[in-house]
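A favour, since you know our C-alpha cells better than I do. Go ahead and set the record down below.
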Amino acid sequence: MTAEQTAALDRYRARWLAIRRSTEPADRGAAEEGVRQAYRAVGLPHPDRFVWCESPIALSHRACAASPADGANVRSQLLDRTRRRAARLVRKRLGRRLLAEVADAVNPADGLIASVSEMVLQHANQDEVSLAARLRRSRPLSLRRILTALLAPQNFSESVAGPAELSWLGPYEFVRGVLGLKAETAPLLGLMQVAANVGWLQPHERTCWLSERPRLLRGDIEGRLHEARGPALCFGDGWSAFAWKGVEIPAWLIEQRGAITLATVDAESNVQVRRCMIEIMTPARYVALGGARKVAQDETGVLWRKIWLNYDIWTAVEVINATPEPDGTHRHYFLQVPANINSAREAVAWTYGMQPDDYSKLVVRT
C-alpha cells in the first residue's frame, strides 16, 4: 500500500470503533433500507415486517416467539456466506497477507464490546428452538427448506448479530473506499449500512427483528466494561447491567457500597465478584476491619493474606509511596499479587516483573 493508503487505516479504525461503541439512537429508516439491500444481495426477498426493540434482551424474548409466518432464520445466508464470498474475492486481488494486515489494523480486538456481547448473551433468552418448531416455520416444506431448518440456529447466540459480529465489515469498507475493490465488496453495502445504524438484528425470511443501541456504555482505560458510580450498560427500556473492571456485579455493590462488610464478602461465592467487593470497599478498609492477616513485613512493605474455606486466596502487598503528598504525608497503596508469594519484597518485585534479588539491587524505588 502507498503511504497515503496506510495512513487511512487509522481513520477507518476510528470510524468502526465509533460505530461499535455508539450510544446514539438507531437511524431506523437507514437500518431497514440496509436490511433490504442485504437481503437482495443474497437473492432473498426483503422481509415484509420490521420489529424494533429497545434492547437486545427484549429482542431475544420477542423473537423467540417467532411463528411460521416469520419464516426461517437467515443469519447464515445474510452474514456468513456473504463474508466467505467477499473474503474469497478480495483475497484473489490483494492476497491473504495484505487482507489480514488490513483486518488487524481496522478491526483490532475490542474488549469493551466483547464484554457487552458476553453480558447480553448471559441475560438473553437462550431457549433452544425445537426441530418441530423450525420445520413449522419452514413451510411449505421442500428438501431445501428441510435442510435449512436442520442447519438453522437453535438459540439466540446463533440467531443474531450485534456490534461484535458486524465489525468485520470495517476492513472491507477500507478495501472498497481506499483500495478501490468496488465489485468485490458491492454485496456488503447493505450490511455496512445496517452495522452503522443498528444495535442487534435477528433476520428471518419474512420478519427482521432489530434492536436499539445502548443509551449508556462505560468502560475503563483498559477497555473493560466498568463504571464506579452507576450502571455500565443501559438500554432505552431500562434494562441495565453493573460492572467492575469487566465483571458483572449486583447493583447494590455500587448503589449501596457502604453495605459491603466482611460478612458480605465472606458470604459471596463468586470469586470474581468477591474480588470486586474488596476493591469497591477498598483494600485499605478491608484490611483495617480485620479482613486479612499480616503474613510478612520488610523494608518494601507489608504482605496481607485472606484464605477462604474453598481455598480461594486473596493476597496483597501494602506499599508506601516514596514521594510525599503536598501535606507531607505518604500515600499507602495495596497491590494484589499471586497467592503463592510469601514476602513483601517478592510481591513488590513481582509488580515490576522482576526477581526479588534483582529488585533489591535497585538504588531508587518509587
Observations:
- Residues 41 and 187 are 5 Å apart (CA to CA).
- The longest helix spans residues 75-94.
- The chain has 19 helices and eleven strands.
- The chain has three domains: 3-213, 215-291, 292-366.
